[in-house]
Amino acid sequence: MTLRRIHAAALAAAAAAVLTVAGCGSDGAKTKKADDPSAAVLKAAREYQEAANKGDWPKACTLMTARLRGGSVADCENDHAANPVTVEHWSPSPTASPTPTLPPPVYADGSTPPPIATATPTGPDFADTGKVDLSNVTAVPAAGNHPAGWAVYATWSVTWPDKPVDTDRRALRLVQEDGAWKVDQHEDAINSPAELTAILGKVTP
User: pTM above 0.90?
Assistant: First the structure.
């Protein structure tokens, strides 16, 4: 074999080696991307929180784990139907409006005084909730009965009637159950994403 042929063969071998290494690197990147659940976790978190904010419990309950629901999906729906006042939707104190409900007495001469107006609660005020923003998808270890999973930091605006806009913040833990990502824990006492792991490390129901 001539020197020129030896040189050409060496170049071809080097090129093949580079292509092999590049191919392996590409496959590794694809595998890493396929193993990253961030997109699926964010999708499930958004669907849950938007449904909960709207009071759409038939949907929200299906996005909870059986442990968080404390029973079947139907039980979860019934529980929320029986107790519709939630922090996501309602003002903590009801308003009152004067409503004449007590019948006036009849005097001896047959006359009656004006009816007495009584304060009757009209029910809690409904709050407008804004778009749910999600960020800081973070792996979190198991805590108590909560399996290891992924944490998400959720925020949304809340506007009560005749009150300034406020912001709600929530930490969500999502785990896989029956082949799908579901919410297994939510904590509201959070001020920033830096608290995600600590907040979700609480042993709560």
Answer: no
